[in-house]
Amino acid sequence: MTVVEQTMRAQKNQWREIATRVSTLESRDFPHGGPKRILFFGLGSSYIAAKLCQLTLKRDRTRRRVPIIACPSTHVGLDAQPGKGDWVFAFTHRASGGPTIQALELADRLGAFTVQVSAQGVEQHLCAQYLLPTTPLERVEPHTAAVTGAICAVTSLLLGDKCVEEWEALQSLPTPSLDLCRRRAGKGPQILVGEWEGEWLAREGALKLMEMARLPVRAFGSEEFFHGPMFSSTDKDSVWHISLPKDPRNDQIKSSHQIGVFGSSPLAWMPALLELQWMALATALNNGVDPDLNLRPESSSGSPMATGSERA
After folding, report:
1. Between 90 and which of 16, 81, 104, 243 could a Cys-Cys bridge form, CB atoms 3.0 to 4.6 Å apart?
2. 248 in the same domain as 121
3. All residues at 6 or more sequence positions from 159 whose CB lies less than 8 Å from its CB, including other chains
C-alpha cells in the first residue's frame, strides 16, 4: 500500500480527533465579540482549503453574517487588506516561511487577530496569536489529509457544534473502493469543470492529478469553460464534471465521469472531494506512476524531514 493511500485511509480518524479537540476550546482564547471580518489565505492546496472553508461558512444560513474573504497569500495587502477586528487564518501545513507567513506578519502588524492553521508539532510563529493544529505532518506530496484536516479544524471552530456533528456523520461514509475507482478513472481526464464549490473541487482534483499521476490537466468553472476553453477541447478529451444541482450548465457538459454534490448542508461537498482524491490515486496507478514520488524521508523522531524548498 502506498503512503498516499495510507494517508487517505487515516483521514476519518483524524477528523474525529480534530473536531473533538476544537469543540473543547475555550472562548477566552479568542477576541470577545467575534470577528468583524474573516480572512482566509494560503497557497496551492492550502488556498483551495481556504476557499472551501469560505464557501462552507456561506452555506450555513444560521451563522452570524460577517464578511468572509478568501485569497492567495500573495494577494494579502493588495486585494485584501487586514485590519483591527479581523480574524485572519493562514493555511500553511508546514509553516516553513514564504508568502503565507509574510502575509500573516502583515496582518499582525495591522492589528488583526492572527491564526496559524498548521500540522501538529509545527512551531507557532511569533506573528501568530493563536495556533490551530490540524493533522500530523504528511510524509508525501500531494497533501490530502492535510487539506481535509485544515477544513475540519477551521469550520469546527467557526461553525460550532452543528458542524462538529456533520464531521461525525462524515466519518461513517464508506471508504471508496480503489478497484472501482481504477475502473472508472481509466487514464484520467484532460479537463475538470464545476461551478461554485464544484469549481474549487475541480481545481483541487486537478492538483492531485498533477502531483500523483503527473497529468497536465486543466480545471475551469463550468461557465468559464464555455467562454473560451471549450474551443481548445475535442470529442476525444475526457472531461470530469463536479456537478451541483444549481449549475446551469449541467445539461450542456458532455462528461466522461460525473461526481455529484448533493444536499444543502455546509459540508455537502465533502464526499465529492474524497472521491476526487481516490480517483487521482487510481489514475496514477493506472498510468504506472508511483504516487509516492515526493515522499519525504523520516527523521529519527518519526516526523518528515524537509527536503528542498518547502511549500508555504
Report:
1. 104
2. no
3. 56, 57, 60, 63, 266
